[in-house]
Design goal:
Elements: E1 10-12, E2 15-19, H1 25-32, H2 35-38, H3 49-64, E3 69-75, E4 83-91, E5 97-104, H4 113-128, E6 133-139, H5 143-151, E7 155-166, E8 169-179
The structure holds coenzyme A.
Length: about 180
Protein backbone atom coordinates (compact mmCIF):
# COMPACT_ATOMS: atom_id res chain seq x y z
CA UNK A 1 0.00 0.00 0.00
CA UNK A 2 1.58 3.31 -1.10
CA UNK A 3 1.11 6.14 1.42
CA UNK A 4 -0.56 9.31 0.04
CA UNK A 5 2.52 11.15 -1.18
CA UNK A 6 1.05 14.64 -1.04
CA UNK A 7 1.00 14.37 2.77
CA UNK A 8 4.46 12.93 3.37
CA UNK A 9 6.80 15.14 5.33
CA UNK A 10 10.18 13.95 6.49
CA UNK A 11 12.84 15.02 8.96
CA UNK A 12 16.19 14.43 7.29
CA UNK A 13 18.78 15.04 9.99
CA UNK A 14 18.79 18.78 10.62
CA UNK A 15 16.52 19.43 7.63
CA UNK A 16 12.77 19.35 7.23
CA UNK A 17 11.27 18.14 3.97
CA UNK A 18 7.75 19.20 3.04
CA UNK A 19 5.95 18.54 -0.27
CA UNK A 20 6.38 21.54 -2.59
CA UNK A 21 3.40 23.82 -2.10
CA UNK A 22 2.11 27.16 -3.35
CA UNK A 23 3.93 28.95 -0.52
CA UNK A 24 7.24 27.77 -1.99
CA UNK A 25 6.91 29.64 -5.28
CA UNK A 26 9.11 32.63 -4.44
CA UNK A 27 11.75 30.46 -2.77
CA UNK A 28 11.79 28.21 -5.82
CA UNK A 29 12.20 31.19 -8.13
CA UNK A 30 15.26 32.34 -6.14
CA UNK A 31 16.72 28.82 -6.23
CA UNK A 32 16.21 28.20 -9.94
CA UNK A 33 17.03 31.71 -11.12
CA UNK A 34 20.69 30.85 -10.54
CA UNK A 35 22.31 29.56 -13.77
CA UNK A 36 24.82 27.57 -11.71
CA UNK A 37 21.98 25.57 -10.17
CA UNK A 38 20.19 24.88 -13.46
CA UNK A 39 23.37 24.29 -15.54
CA UNK A 40 22.90 20.50 -15.72
CA UNK A 41 19.13 20.47 -15.22
CA UNK A 42 16.32 20.26 -17.76
CA UNK A 43 15.28 23.87 -17.19
CA UNK A 44 16.72 27.23 -18.15
CA UNK A 45 17.24 29.68 -15.27
CA UNK A 46 13.81 30.89 -14.16
CA UNK A 47 12.86 34.51 -14.72
CA UNK A 48 9.27 34.80 -13.55
CA UNK A 49 7.04 33.73 -10.69
CA UNK A 50 4.77 32.09 -13.27
CA UNK A 51 7.59 29.69 -14.21
CA UNK A 52 8.09 28.76 -10.56
CA UNK A 53 4.33 28.31 -10.19
CA UNK A 54 4.41 25.83 -13.08
CA UNK A 55 7.03 23.73 -11.30
CA UNK A 56 5.02 23.73 -8.08
CA UNK A 57 1.90 22.73 -10.01
CA UNK A 58 3.85 19.89 -11.69
CA UNK A 59 5.08 18.68 -8.28
CA UNK A 60 1.65 18.91 -6.68
CA UNK A 61 0.01 17.03 -9.53
CA UNK A 62 2.64 14.30 -9.37
CA UNK A 63 2.18 13.89 -5.61
CA UNK A 64 -1.62 14.02 -5.79
CA UNK A 65 -1.51 11.11 -8.24
CA UNK A 66 1.19 9.18 -6.33
CA UNK A 67 3.47 9.32 -9.39
CA UNK A 68 6.31 11.18 -7.70
CA UNK A 69 7.15 13.55 -4.86
CA UNK A 70 9.28 16.67 -4.59
CA UNK A 71 10.03 18.12 -1.20
CA UNK A 72 11.17 21.62 -0.31
CA UNK A 73 14.27 21.54 1.90
CA UNK A 74 14.57 23.85 4.90
CA UNK A 75 16.76 23.86 7.94
CA UNK A 76 14.53 22.83 10.83
CA UNK A 77 12.85 25.94 12.27
CA UNK A 78 13.83 28.13 9.30
CA UNK A 79 11.40 29.30 6.63
CA UNK A 80 14.04 29.65 3.87
CA UNK A 81 13.82 27.14 1.06
CA UNK A 82 17.40 26.05 0.31
CA UNK A 83 16.75 23.27 -2.20
CA UNK A 84 14.50 20.45 -3.28
CA UNK A 85 14.73 16.67 -3.33
CA UNK A 86 12.46 13.78 -4.15
CA UNK A 87 11.34 11.23 -6.69
CA UNK A 88 10.75 12.37 -10.27
CA UNK A 89 9.17 9.10 -11.25
CA UNK A 90 7.91 6.12 -9.29
CA UNK A 91 7.09 2.73 -10.76
CA UNK A 92 5.12 0.34 -8.59
CA UNK A 93 3.48 -1.98 -11.14
CA UNK A 94 6.08 -3.12 -13.64
CA UNK A 95 8.99 -2.78 -11.23
CA UNK A 96 9.55 -1.19 -7.87
CA UNK A 97 11.79 1.71 -8.65
CA UNK A 98 12.09 5.44 -8.19
CA UNK A 99 14.19 8.09 -9.88
CA UNK A 100 15.62 10.51 -7.36
CA UNK A 101 16.40 14.15 -8.04
CA UNK A 102 17.86 16.90 -5.90
CA UNK A 103 19.25 20.43 -5.90
CA UNK A 104 20.60 22.97 -3.45
CA UNK A 105 21.13 26.70 -3.68
CA UNK A 106 24.77 27.33 -4.55
CA UNK A 107 25.52 28.94 -1.18
CA UNK A 108 24.83 25.53 0.38
CA UNK A 109 27.10 23.41 -1.81
CA UNK A 110 30.26 21.83 -0.45
CA UNK A 111 29.00 21.45 3.11
CA UNK A 112 27.68 17.89 3.04
CA UNK A 113 24.06 19.01 3.25
CA UNK A 114 22.72 16.76 0.50
CA UNK A 115 24.86 13.96 1.87
CA UNK A 116 23.02 14.35 5.16
CA UNK A 117 19.61 14.43 3.49
CA UNK A 118 19.97 11.74 0.82
CA UNK A 119 20.19 8.71 3.16
CA UNK A 120 16.84 9.69 4.70
CA UNK A 121 15.29 9.96 1.23
CA UNK A 122 16.75 6.58 0.31
CA UNK A 123 15.34 4.95 3.46
CA UNK A 124 11.98 6.57 2.70
CA UNK A 125 12.10 5.07 -0.79
CA UNK A 126 13.17 1.60 0.23
CA UNK A 127 11.17 1.26 3.45
CA UNK A 128 8.12 3.55 3.24
CA UNK A 129 7.53 3.13 -0.49
CA UNK A 130 8.79 -0.45 -0.72
CA UNK A 131 11.09 0.31 -3.64
CA UNK A 132 13.67 -2.22 -4.76
CA UNK A 133 15.73 0.08 -6.96
CA UNK A 134 16.67 3.74 -6.86
CA UNK A 135 18.07 5.40 -9.92
CA UNK A 136 19.33 8.81 -10.93
CA UNK A 137 19.97 10.41 -14.28
CA UNK A 138 22.91 12.79 -14.37
CA UNK A 139 23.92 15.07 -17.20
CA UNK A 140 27.49 14.41 -18.28
CA UNK A 141 29.80 16.90 -16.56
CA UNK A 142 27.81 17.20 -13.33
CA UNK A 143 30.67 15.95 -11.20
CA UNK A 144 29.21 17.07 -7.86
CA UNK A 145 26.12 15.02 -8.51
CA UNK A 146 28.20 11.98 -9.56
CA UNK A 147 30.31 12.25 -6.38
CA UNK A 148 27.19 12.52 -4.24
CA UNK A 149 25.66 9.37 -5.74
CA UNK A 150 28.90 7.39 -5.58
CA UNK A 151 29.32 8.35 -1.89
CA UNK A 152 25.91 6.82 -1.26
CA UNK A 153 26.43 3.47 -2.92
CA UNK A 154 25.04 4.20 -6.38
CA UNK A 155 26.82 2.51 -9.28
CA UNK A 156 27.34 4.03 -12.68
CA UNK A 157 25.43 1.69 -14.99
CA UNK A 158 25.90 3.38 -18.30
CA UNK A 159 25.84 6.39 -20.54
CA UNK A 160 22.61 6.93 -22.47
CA UNK A 161 23.52 8.74 -25.66
CA UNK A 162 21.28 11.70 -26.58
CA UNK A 163 18.80 10.46 -24.01
CA UNK A 164 17.43 13.88 -23.14
CA UNK A 165 16.42 16.95 -25.11
CA UNK A 166 16.16 20.38 -23.56
CA UNK A 167 17.54 23.89 -24.06
CA UNK A 168 17.48 23.22 -27.81
CA UNK A 169 19.80 20.18 -27.96
CA UNK A 170 20.27 16.54 -27.04
CA UNK A 171 22.18 15.57 -23.90
CA UNK A 172 23.89 12.34 -22.94
CA UNK A 173 22.77 11.12 -19.52
CA UNK A 174 24.62 8.93 -17.05
CA UNK A 175 22.41 6.42 -15.32
CA UNK A 176 23.20 5.50 -11.73
CA UNK A 177 21.43 2.79 -9.75
CA UNK A 178 21.34 1.37 -6.28
CA UNK A 179 19.39 -1.69 -5.19
CA UNK A 180 17.82 -2.33 -1.80
CA UNK A 181 20.29 -4.10 0.48
C1 LIG B 1 24.20 18.07 -6.76
C2 LIG B 1 24.40 18.93 -5.52
C3 LIG B 1 23.20 18.85 -4.61
C4 LIG B 1 25.63 18.39 -4.78
O1 LIG B 1 25.94 19.31 -3.75
P1 LIG B 1 27.22 19.09 -2.85
O2 LIG B 1 27.28 20.22 -1.92
O3 LIG B 1 28.41 18.76 -3.69
O4 LIG B 1 26.85 17.74 -2.13
P2 LIG B 1 26.86 17.43 -0.62
O5 LIG B 1 25.81 18.20 0.07
O6 LIG B 1 26.84 15.96 -0.47
O7 LIG B 1 28.26 17.97 -0.14
C5 LIG B 1 29.44 17.28 -0.48
C6 LIG B 1 30.56 18.26 -0.44
O8 LIG B 1 30.61 18.84 0.85
C7 LIG B 1 31.85 18.53 1.47
N1 LIG B 1 31.54 18.29 2.89
C8 LIG B 1 31.76 19.16 3.88
N2 LIG B 1 31.33 18.63 5.03
C9 LIG B 1 30.82 17.41 4.75
C10 LIG B 1 30.23 16.40 5.52
N3 LIG B 1 30.06 16.53 6.84
N4 LIG B 1 29.80 15.26 4.93
C11 LIG B 1 29.94 15.09 3.60
N5 LIG B 1 30.51 16.04 2.81
C12 LIG B 1 30.95 17.18 3.37
C13 LIG B 1 32.40 17.35 0.73
O9 LIG B 1 33.80 17.31 0.78
C14 LIG B 1 31.89 17.62 -0.67
O10 LIG B 1 32.65 18.60 -1.29
P3 LIG B 1 33.53 18.26 -2.58
O11 LIG B 1 32.62 17.55 -3.52
O12 LIG B 1 33.97 19.60 -3.02
O13 LIG B 1 34.58 17.36 -2.07
C15 LIG B 1 24.68 20.40 -5.93
O14 LIG B 1 25.87 20.47 -6.67
C16 LIG B 1 23.55 21.03 -6.73
O15 LIG B 1 22.52 21.41 -6.17
N6 LIG B 1 23.76 21.20 -8.06
C17 LIG B 1 22.78 21.86 -8.89
C18 LIG B 1 21.54 21.04 -9.15
C19 LIG B 1 21.90 19.72 -9.77
O16 LIG B 1 22.73 19.63 -10.66
N7 LIG B 1 21.24 18.68 -9.29
C20 LIG B 1 21.51 17.33 -9.70
C21 LIG B 1 20.84 16.94 -10.92
S1 LIG B 1 21.28 15.25 -11.34
Amino acid sequence: MIPPLARQTLMAGAYSLTPLAEGDVSGLLRLFADPAVTEFMDIAPLETLAEAEEIVAWARDMAANNRGLRWAIRRAKSSDLIGTVGFNTLEFDRGRRGEIAYDLAQAHWGQGIMSEILPHVMVFGFDNLGLHRLEAMVTVGNLRSCRLLERHGFSLEGRLRDHAFWKGRFWDQLIYGRLAD
